[in-house]
Amino acid sequence: MGPPLARYRRVWKTNSSLLLEQTETGSRVLDLGTSFCTTDGSIRKIIKTRTMDELFVIWMEDHVRLTKATTTYHSYQSILNRIPKWFMQLKVDRVEPTHAQRLLANWHREGLKALTINSRRAIFVGMFSWAIRMNNYKGTNPFSAVAKLNEGLKEMET
Predict the structure, then answer these.
(1) What is the tens place of the pLDDT at every residue in 34-92?
(2) Within-domain flag for 152
(3) Distances (CA, A) of 16 to 30, 49, 50, 55, 71
């Protein structure tokens, strides 16, 4: 069993047994299924990520929070909160370009503009690139395989 829990500052719970606790002394990930913990804010390569939901939590805390502006972190969080449940429940090692294409098509059907969809695609390309570097994902980046949407002519004011 890991060290005792400190006072909570922020807790993230995924749909599975993975829990991220951020305390005064740093953050740690608790995998309640195997009772394992990491502390000290180091990269958590030892976590076996099972679903996209879990991967997003790890990416947001281990990468985005540490390397991006606070406003960017909150913007990403807002986007991630609106990802369809079918995508969040996918096993990470099963994500394919067809899933990426389906997600972009869902956003298009919801009425999002091509520029917004392409921006979100770029976020996912970055997340999967990070996951590959951190050994959380094996294979090629599924979002890199999906073409950007045509944004049409951009009007410029003169």
Answers:
(1) 333 444 444 444 445 589 999 999 999 999 999 999 999 999 999 999 999 999 999 99
(2) no
(3) 11, 10, 9, 11, 27
CA 144 to chain centre: 15
Q: Which residues pair with 91 in a beta bridge?
A: 51
List, for residues 96-136, the tens digit of each pLDDT value. 999 999 999 999 999 999 999 999 999 999 999 999 998 88
Alpha helix segments (H runs only) across the chain: 52-59, 65-67, 70-80, 85-88, 97-109, 114-133
Q: What is the rounded end-to-end Cα distance, in angstroms, of the chain?
A: 65
CB 115 within 8 A of CB 155: no
- Written as one letter, the residue type at 17 is S
Task: Provide the domain count of the chain.
Answer: 1
Could you list the residue range(s) of the whole structural domain that residue 60 is in? 10-133
